[in-house]
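Please produce the structure of this protein holding alpha-D-glucopyranuronic acid.
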Amino acid sequence: MLYPQRNKYRQYIDLSGIWDFRFDTKNEGLKENWQSGFDKSQPIAVPASWNDQFADNRDFLGPAWYQTYFDLPWGWTDQKVILRFGSVNYIADVWLNGDQLGQHEGGHIPFEFDITSKLKAYNNHLIMRVDGDLADDRVPPGGRPMFYPATNFDFFPYCGIHRLVLLYSVPNDGIEDLTIRTFIEGNMGKVQIILECVEKSSLTANIDLKGHGVDLSETMIMEDKTTEFTIEVPNAALWDTEHPNLYNLTVELLKNDVVFDSYRLKIGIRTIEVSGDQLLLNGKPIELIGFAKHIDFPITGRGYNPAVIIKDYSLMKWIGANSFRTSHYPYSEQMMDLADQLGFLVIDETPAVGLTFHKHHITRHLELCKQYTRELIARDKNHPSVIMWSLANEPHSSTKSKEFFRELYDLSKETDPTRLVTIINMQGVRDRAFEFLDIVCMNRYYAWYIGPGQIDEGCVGLSNEIDRFYQKYSKPIIIAEFGADTIPGWHSQPPEMFSEEYQVEFLKKYIEVINNKPYVIGQHIWNMCDFKTPQGIHRVGAYNYKGVFTRDRRPKMAAHMLRRLWTKSSE
Ligand code: GCU
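Below is the modeled complex.
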C-alpha cells in the first residue's frame, strides 16, 4: 500500500482538522439515519482520540459519529480519487454523499475506498460511525472485569479517528504497488524492485536510484502486471543505526514513451538475519537497546501527534537507544519514516494483544490476525528500520497457540521472506511457537509481579530462565519487557518498590544479567514513558508508571542512569 504523494501525476489533500461529532450513547444513529447527516453535533479535532477531548463520556467507547464536507480540488478529473484513513479504532463504517463506502475492522492500520464514481464537484458529505467497544470476538479482545473499561490488555482503549484522513488522486492505470528488497554481495548492494501496475499492458518503466555518489537508471519493459527488476549499487552506502544511509528511488511509468505516473521512495540497503545465537545487521552482530513504547499523550490520547514523535526520538537518541517495539499495535507511517531516517531498529507489532484462544473466538481471532498481518506488511514492508514482525504480545498459553501462530508465521514469511518473525512471551506461559519462530522474545517481571521487592533473587530467576530458554530453543533472545512502576519524585533508601531508587536498581541489575548472556541480543525496557490504562486496583490514577520518562516526557532517575550506561557518557 503506497502512501499518497504529490507530483506531476499524483495529488493529495489532508482532510484532517475540526469535524462535527456526536456521541450515540443510545445507539440510535443508524435507525435515525445519521448516515445521511446529523445536527446537534459538537466540534472535534481529527486526528485524535475522542476520550480526552471532552468533559464527559471519557469512558464511552462508542458508537460515535463524525461528519465533514469537502470540495473536489481543481484538476482532479479523469483520475482515480481515493479516500484514506490512517487509523480508526475500532470498527469504522463510512458513507459519502449518502452512499455507504464500506466498513473496516481493526485500529492502527490504514484503509481506503475508491470514491471516484461517488464524488460531486462541491460539498461532498463524509460521514463515519466509529464503534470502539470491547468484545471477546475482537482483536484485541475485551474481557477482564478487574479493569474498567474491561480490557484484556493494560492500556486505555482509546477510540476515534487516530491518524490523518487523506483524499488523494492517482492516474487510472498507474503504479499499484512497489516492494523493495535489498541484498549485499561484497561491497555491491542489490536493490530488487517488484513493480505492480493496475493493468497488464505494454508499458515501460524508468527506474532511477540516486544518492551517495551514484545516479543509476534503468528502463524496463513491463512484461506483466507485476515485474521485477534488480539494480546493482557498487560501493553501496549501507543502512545501519550509526549511518542510516538512504537512497532516492524514483519509478516512472510510460505509455507510448510518455511518462504518466511516478512514485518516489527513500530506500536503505541492509540485510537482517539470525546466525547461530546472534542477530546480524549487514552481516555484523547487532544488539537492540531501547524500549517497548505506547502511542499515548494527554488530550490526543492515541492520536497522531508529530511533536511528541519528534520528542520521543530526541529522547531515545539522548538516552542511547537504537531500537524500539511498536507495542502493542502498529505506529504511524510518519514514525516509521523517521525510524528509517534516524537509524532505529524496529520490532513492528500487530494489534494482537491479550489473545486467549477461547474455542468460541479462536476462528474469528485467527481471521483478524491474518488480516492485520497482511495489512501491516503491506504498509511497512519497504522500511529498512523494520527488521522483525511481532505477531502478538503475550498470547495466553493453549494447546491451540502453536498451530495458530504457525499459520501466521507461514503467512508472514510468504508475504515477506526477508524479515524475522517472533511473538512476545508472557512470564509463566509456555510458547511452543518458539520451535519455529526466528527469535525468542520474553517479557519478564521478576522482583515486580514475581518475588516483589527482591531484586537480587529476581535476577537469579531471570538468569536461570534465560539459560533454560536458550538450552531449549538455541535461538537469540530479546528481553522485550522488564520494568518497575515508579511514582515520579517518590524516593526511598533502601530502595523500595514504586520509588525511583528501586527502578534504578531493578533496571541496572536486569541489564547486568542480560549483558552477561552472549545469546541475549536485545534489551527493551517497559516502558519508555508512563501511560494511561483502564482503572484497576493495581493502577494508581489509572496509569502504568513503569516509564523511564513521565507521560509528559520528563526523565526519572533511571533515565540518567540508562544514559550513562547506554552512551557510556559521564553525565
Ligand atoms: C505486560 C504487558 C504490558 C503491560 C506490562 C505491565 O508485559 O505486555 O502491556 O503494561 O506487562 O504489567 O506493566
